[in-house]
Write a structure and sequence with these properties.
single chain, 124 residues, alpha+beta, 3-stranded mixed β-sheet, 3-stranded antiparallel β-sheet
């Protein structure tokens, strides 16, 4: 029985500008939290933690400075859009997005209680 590996590029093969993301640096992830090690609290300067809340994926500051958990889906969507503006990422399959973001970003800092009030520290 052959196990199938997820394709790096959604709906096709690795070609064109997307080839710059080569497979040797990519790992598929099953982690539902795309920013698990990258999202930091701007108030406390500590990593925010995944915090399932009422059946929704959310992130929360472990020190309790933010009383309301923030939607993981919203924060991750805004961050992925920022990454797409920074690099050629069209067509990257979802299982590889965590790996791409880990290569592009050092840290994502949540400044306020809004998923679009983020500051990005990019790798150079």
């Amino acid at each position: 029985m052959n196990a199938t590996r997820p394709s790096l590029i959604s709906g096709g093969s690795l070609c064109g500008r997307a080839a710059a993301w080569g497979r040797r640096h990519m790992a598929a992830s099953t982690d539902p939290y795309l920013l698990r090690t990258l999202l930091w609290c701007g108030r406390c300067d500590v990593p925010m933690h995944p915090h399932p809340h009422c059946g929704e994926r959310t992130y929360k500051c472990p020190l309790g400075c933010r009383k309301v958990p923030l939607s993981a889906e919203a924060i991750e969507a805004v961050t992925w859009t920022a990454a797409e503006r920074r690099a050629t990422l069209s067509g990257i399959a979802p299982p590889f997005r965590k790996s791409v973001l880990e290569q592009l970003l050092v840290k994502v800092i949540l400044r306020a209680n809004a998923p679009d009030d983020l500051r990005y520290i990019w790798r150079t």
